[in-house]
Design goal:
Helix 1 crosses helix 2. The protein is mostly helical. It has a two-stranded antiparallel ribbon with strand order 1-2. The chain has eight helices and two strands, in the order H-E-H-E-H-H-H-H-H-H. Helices cover 67% and strands 3% of the residues.
């Protein structure tokens, strides 16, 4: 769109304010598109040269805007990619913690083998941190919801369901007397709220 808009501005001045450095200047709209497109990323437009002060300022302005837009777009795409990778890592982590079953009971059992949740508590903290980061990524980049993968454990609905199911099992299936500290811990609260 930037190229097309710049071409509409350059088209009427081709051959007068903007000329070709090699031979006769083409004055068709395609030549204006070429000059505009090249001036978006560099100051100047290849074989086209601005001859007036206004044309020079336009080429400078066009290159600054073009470079900024291209940089912002590439940065945005890289951030989306990193957030998507982070989301997929969380989905894979939860899937592996359920022994590849997707069953939250397996997750809870794995966090507290033989009823010892002291080491599993550290994993809950990590899961809460990862879930919070994924939640914030979706606030910053809502486009992430449109990325789908073949394996269901990568989907937000799947890993959120597993996490909420595991937290519900923690609240209901574990003894209040023995696991009061776990049920009312900051890690469980953070994981619940972020999920």
């Amino acid at each position: 769109m930037l190229t097309f808009g710049a071409a509409m501005i350059l088209h009427p001045v081709l051959g007068s304010a903007v000329v070709s450095q090699q031979g006769q200047t083409a004055t068709d709209f395609f030549a204006a598109l070429i000059a505009a497109g090249r001036s978006l990323s560099i100051v100047g437009a290849g074989e086209f040269s601005p001859r007036t002060g206004g044309a020079r300022l336009f080429f400078l302005f066009n290159s600054v805007v073009g470079t900024a837009i291209i940089s912002l777009t590439l940065t945005y795409l890289m951030q989306v990619y990193n957030s998507l990778k982070q989301r997929n890592a969380l989905g894979m982590t939860l899937h592996l913690m359920t022994m590849r079953t997707g069953d939250a009971a397996e997750l809870v059992a794995g966090l507290g083998p033989d009823g010892q949740f002291s080491t599993g508590y550290g994993h809950l903290i990590q899961l809460a941190n990862q879930m919070t980061e994924v939640e914030e990524s979706h606030h910053f980049y809502p486009v992430l919801l449109y990325f789908r993968f073949h394996d269901p454990f990568y989907s937000v609905s799947e890993f959120a369901f597993v996490a909420l199911d595991a937290l519900s099992l923690t609240e209901t299936a574990l003894s209040e007397e023995k696991f009061h500290w776990l049920k009312h811990s900051a890690a469980v609260a953070a994981l619940w709220q972020s999920t």
